Amino acid sequence: MQELVGRLTAVDAEATETLKVIAYFDALIHGHATTEVLLRGAAILSGCAAGQTVSGKTMRVDASGVRAAAPPGVWPSRSFEDGGVVWIERSGPAHANDEMILERLAIAAGIAHERTSPAAASRRALETLIDDQASAEARSDAAKRLHLDPHTRYRIIATTDAAPTTSAGRMPSVVVGTAHGPVRAVLADETSTWRHAGIGIRCTPPSMPESWASALIALRLTPARESIIDAADLGTLLPLAIEADASALGMPDVAALSDLVATHPGAEVLLDAITATDSLRAAGVETGLHHSTVQARAEQYSDALGFDIRSPRGRVRLALALAVHRLATSRFD
User: Fold this and answer.
1) DSSP classification of residue 265
2) pTM, whole model, 2 decimals?
């Protein structure tokens, strides 16, 4: 970094100062600097007061780097994890490196918060608890940090919602990067309501990776007409879905369905309604289509798929093909 700064000095003074800001905060992060030290650095670099609010606590240092009470006002700011916000109190036109100072301060403040806050400790514990690559000892320690009884069965929720807050406070949750995009894992609370979620099977703490895996499968199987699926209600479909998810074998029904959905917008909604209702007339009521339209499309779709989706056996094939198709195409980015 120092060599790069030296090379840029003679070319672009502003770029040089920007790199110095980055290097400065990187050094503070590497040194595990406290929040006060980070704010003091931002204040000195910017020449104006800097502050932070997170978890209901506010800290501010003035332009000379001394802690002081925060005055009212709206300042240039950046947010970070757990609703945290940092700001610098620039009252006039922004200076050249204000944006970079704020950006690096927010990153550093988020890292410092992650290292020290109880909420962050709960996130790390939950992430370990649902990780099937973690050792049994590590998962046991994580369960203790979350105050879980080793003989009680719990559930993990996989959701694209924000973590809810109950009367007992915010539930432990962590956003997990999956092959299908970021998904929030939440230690279940039966009283919570969800807009879009997969509910995992009940497991004791040592087996919580199984609850997470089943919750993620359930979330990925959630169709447009249904916002929540409980993995316990999937029955035989759950192990079949897990096996299909891990299999690289080609499935003709799924390939035909994918081609049909790609060429007929709205087909998936009607096909799902056909599997979920007891007649084509009922599927028409659910989708808002006339009965004759549903009959015509059911015949057209049967021809395209190569089997009669109106027969009992055809509905089973269609339901399985839809499930595997959703597993292959679900994204939560």
Assistant:
1) T
2) 0.71
